[in-house]
Amino acid sequence: MTGQKKQRIGVGIIGFGTVGTGVVKILTNRAEEIRRRLGVPLELVRIADLDLKRDRGVAVKPGVLISKADELINDPDVDIVVELVGGYEPARTFILKAIEKGKCVVTANKALLAVHGEELYRAAQKAGMDLGFEASVGGGIPIIRAMKEGLAANKILSIYGIINGTANYILSKMTEEKRPFAEVLTEAQRLGYAEADPRFDVEGIDSAHKLAILVTLAFGTPVEIKSIYTEGITGVTPTDIEYAKEFGYRIKLLAIAKSNDDQIEVRVHPTMVPDEYLIATVNGIYNAIYVVGDAVGNTLFYGQGAGAMPTGSAVVSDVMEAGRNLLYDSVGCVPPTGFDPDQRELLRIKPMEEIRSFYYLRFMALDKPGVLSRISGVLGKYNISISSMIQKGRKIGEAVPVVMMTHKAVERDVQQALAEINRFPDVSEKTVLIRVEGEEEE
């Protein structure tokens, strides 16, 4: 250590919304515990927000709440800037300005990191500043620190994550109560679990943003958000949920990353997982991230993935880490991505059409002789082997569901087969496809 130890660490927060309020409550209510752990107080110096009048249910000292973020960033008493405004701009500009001013930065902004993360990581590394983003994935679950440090001795083999609480709540309710997607979504919006515009959650975009961050930390490679195959839950029906149960599966919106030699799979989509898997039992607004390392084996991180206090907990943990590094002249000792910048490699993202998976297929086919054999014939033509099948009831001359589970097959082959089958005059609807994760001897 060089020089005189600081007597306090000054914190400035840009954005006094839901998460900002949670952070302020924790800094206020847990001030003594934080001081005991850190050795000096964390002092809330400034909060910048355009709304200076709204009651957030937490008191701040006069003069702390201001309207100009630049004033906060330029304040010499602010050592750590916390960005909680969300979105791309002006959040990106605020962070870059803070780093340029020699401030450590903490953010919960997963969308910004997914799209502009590389620029921000480089800026922090070049300036020798800490950039903390524990709250960007999994709310209060300490997955970022685990990936950067706790699992650093491992080659990460795979990640399976339920990382959007809104989608998980909707699928859980659909499963438990046999209700359609639209009805449960309306309820989730009424309860505050879903936004008025829920597209980022239900279309898988939010999960893709978070997966981009996890992939960067797990494999030491940059990843563009457009390279992540993304499919949401809007097409999941109670019918398919019930068939999944019959086969012994639950449907979850999973973010999946797998390492395979010098390339990786990165995808978000509804996925059937076996009932006996722990991740299949994660319901409601909870998140769970299953990480497999070559040395540690299987690990599971579980907890509340959103909310003022869980997310605020993650933000404050980053503030404390940055504060401790400032106290002991160790700022920047762990690179933002957990990898030495010169040792990061650009890995190939395996195109979706090349992945191999198990598949659930539901056909609506006319109940007449020869239809099933024609469907099976096309599947066989594209090297797709059927592992089990359900066909319920007989309605001669009417469309009935024919449900199949396949052995592992190549995505390209499956899509080509379905395109051919969907053109059959005896198939009345587009075939439903849901990918399946599990184990099978090959």
Structure description:
With 442 residues, the chain is α/β, with parallel strands linked by helices. The protein contains 14 helices and 18 strands. The protein has helices at 18-29, 31-38, 69-74, 91-100, 110-127, 143-150, 165-177, 181-191, 199-202, 205-219, 238-247, 308-327, 371-381, 411-421, and strands spanning 9-14, 42-48, 65-66, 80-83, 104-107, 131-132, 156-162, 229-230, 249-260, 263-274, 286-293, 297-304, 348-349, 356-366, 386-391, 399-406, 409-410, 432-436. Strands 7, 8, 9, 10, 11, 12, 13, 14, 15, 16, 17 and 18 form a 12-stranded mixed sheet that branches. A 6-stranded parallel sheet has the order 3-2-1-4-5-6, with helices on both faces. Helix 5 (110-127) links the parallel strand 5 and strand 6. The radius of gyration is 25 Å and the shape is elongated. The N and C termini lie far apart (57 Å). The model has no long low-confidence stretch (mean pLDDT 93).
Task: Provide a compact summary of the structure.
This protein has 14 helices and 18 strands. It is an alpha/beta fold and 442 residues long.
Radius of gyration: 25 Å
> Largest beta sheet, briefly?
12 strands, mixed
Overall form: elongated
For the termini, the CA-CA separation is 57 Å
Helix content bin:
25-40%
Structural class: alpha/beta
- Beta-strand content estimate: 15-25%
Mean pLDDT: 93
Query: How many strand segments?
Result: 18
SS field, number of helical segments: 14
